[in-house]
Design a protein that fits this description.
rod-shaped
């Protein structure tokens, strides 16, 4: 009789151990699935950011091609500004000379 009780206790312990191992295995599987989903989501975000960066770099390269033309236009504008400043300074000096000749009250 004691043998049957011992076998029953051993069987119950075995079934409990199998239950604990099964529960831990399912918990580990859910954690693994959650991890893989999170990694996939983050990789998708990273891929999107990489595509955005690629588009921005492509845009910069396109803009870089027009940079010499824009620099040439800017230089021409600066030369034109220098001429206009010189003309304005000459006109101001003439006006100052005339104002100096007019009596004040």
């Amino acid at each position: 009789m004691a043998v049957w009780i011992a076998l029953g206790v051993a069987l119950a312990a075995l079934l409990a151990a199998i239950g604990v191992v099964t529960a831990r295995a399912f918990q580990t599987w859910r954690t693994f699935r959650s991890l893989t989903n999170a990694v996939s989501r983050r990789l998708g975000e990273l891929e999107g950011k990489a595509l955005d960066a690629e588009r921005k770099v492509s845009s910069l390269v396109d803009k870089g091609a027009t940079l010499p033309e824009a620099t040439a236009r800017l230089d021409a504008s600066f030369r034109r500004l220098a001429v206009l400043r010189a003309a304005a300074a000459e006109a101001q000096s003439t006006v100052s000379l005339v104002r100096g000749l007019v009596p004040r009250k």
